Amino acid sequence: MANSDSRLTETTQTVVSAERALEMSRRSVLSVMDALAAHICVLDERGVIVKVNRAWREFAAANGGHAELCCEGSDYLVACASALHHGADAVQAGAEEFTFKLKEVLAGRLDSFQLEYPCPSPKLTRWFLARVSRVADADPPRVVIAHDSVTELKLVQETLRRQEAELRDLAASIPGALFRLQVLPGGALRFVYFSPGIERLFGLKPDQACGDGRRLFRRVAQEARSFCRHSLRAATASGMPWECEMKVYSEAGASADWGDFIWVQAKAMVKAESAACAQGAALWTGVLTDITARKQAEVALKASEESFRLFFETMPQGVVYHALSGRITAANPAACALLRLSHEQLLGKSPIDPAWHLIREDGSDFPPAQNPALEALRTGQPVRQVVMGLCLTEGSLVWLQVTATPLFKQGVLSEVYASFEDITELIRTRQELHRQASTDHLTGAANRRHFMERLQAEYGRIQRHPELCSCVVTLDLDHFKLINDRFGHAAGDAVLRHVTLLMRLGTRPLDVVGRIGGEEFALLLPDTSREDASALAERLRLRIEQNPAQYRQFVIPATVSIGISAIVCEDGTAEAALMRSDQAMYGIKENGRNGVSLA
């Protein structure tokens, strides 16, 4: 009896010890679960919650989750059904897929699955990777659900997409894939993670790409494989970021005729402290991005640059680029030829260089500040078709038509390009036509129409500036009919040309000498007082009297009667001053001729 009681006591103690060990094991498992950062939930085969860890409870409480999700004995599938009806579209879609696969795992038709899903909150949308696994050989069956945050990877991916969009204007269209790669001590490469985007780039699922790195590298163009490996090993040795661009072919293209391909860019950073590094391996985390569109744009840009360079070098118009300082930074061959300078001589030259003497069509100096290139730099507006005369060092004159266009980068003026063409022949033709239209064909003096236009302009100037003084002088050859009758009309023409020459020699370049009738001439004397005009008229009268014309063997004397009038602002018309000078001139004729009279 005593032995029986003793054996009973030992058995009881063994059971108690086993129960204690089991409880300690259970508490140890629970402690480990609570220590994990992942959100973990254990379900039975019906979907009823058996256990959740601390991270699961805290996340559900912090994000307004259903209370039943934290309670052991609650139906997890009911909570999933609630998300299907109340969440946003993306949440509903994720919950629907998750629920379907979870039921497959609970039913034993699927061992495990993983799913990324968004978890929106008022301030930030976070992303999680849900991993669901059926515990092998568990009795009763158990299913473990773990949720890991992949928000940082998603944010890195989104940041890289935004950067790529800013640089390449291909924001949403560029697919990408996150990856992790180990560079082992011997230099071998082993991929340990790919996001689902790898399939869009390489045609491989993440597990395929990780499981067989050689299969992935076979998609990379032969010429890029060794470069990728060597550059990655060099970056590993230096600890610097790694970046590489490669051609990636389809499987058919890689094995057959090297068909269509895309360009993929890899960017990665090495992780300094990790379990892999502790074993002597380097762990790289990065992103793969489709940059095909950018590469195509670069090729197109290069082709465009080549076309522009060819056009720039061969176009007949001269083109020069000016920096903000106004100095020339580039010039095409046509510009060098037109400006009679080499490319080296043009570079650094300013539009207001004193070696360049610029004039207007009327012969006056072209103001440096009004140079088209400087005008465009100052105003930021284009200046079109400005005519400028360039006096070259060898004494020749080239007429140019210049257009200056400002160029902007990101809204800020960066430079100006000026294009110009040689219109010398056009200007000469125009000047000759103007001369013919405004000049008396016999004497070369201004004809009556041109003289009246200049008189009208001077009259307008006096109207605007009454303090100024200008005069009109009329001259008439005395007894000109007798000259024609005695010596002939050819001799009379010679006398007219001779008198015109004497008037030109006795006046200033700005004075206008005009023939306004048969033997009647007129002088327009801007900025000349009555006294100065009278003195000039007397000198002309005396010079004509003392310098007879010569025609063949004949010496033909001539005298003139001269009238003078000032242009005053009180005049109603420009012709009023001319009429007064005419009256003064006829007064001299009536009183013996060969004299000067001031109206």
Summarize the structure.
The protein is an alpha+beta fold and 599 residues long. The protein contains 21 helices and 23 strands.
Could you characterize the architecture of this molecule?
By secondary structure, the protein is α+β, with helices and mostly antiparallel strands. The protein folds into 5 domains: 1-28; 36-149, PAS domain (Beta-Lactamase, 2-Layer Sandwich), CATH 3.30.450; 153-293, 2-Layer Sandwich (Beta-Lactamase); 315-428, 2-Layer Sandwich (Beta-Lactamase), CATH 3.30.450.20; 439-598, Alpha-Beta Plaits (2-Layer Sandwich). The chain is 44% helix and 27% strand. The chain has a 6-stranded antiparallel sheet, sandwiched between helices. It has a 5-stranded antiparallel sheet with strand order 2-1-5-4-3, sandwiched between helices. The chain has a 5-stranded antiparallel sheet with strand order 7-6-10-9-8, with helices on both faces. The radius of gyration is 50 Å and the shape is rod-shaped.
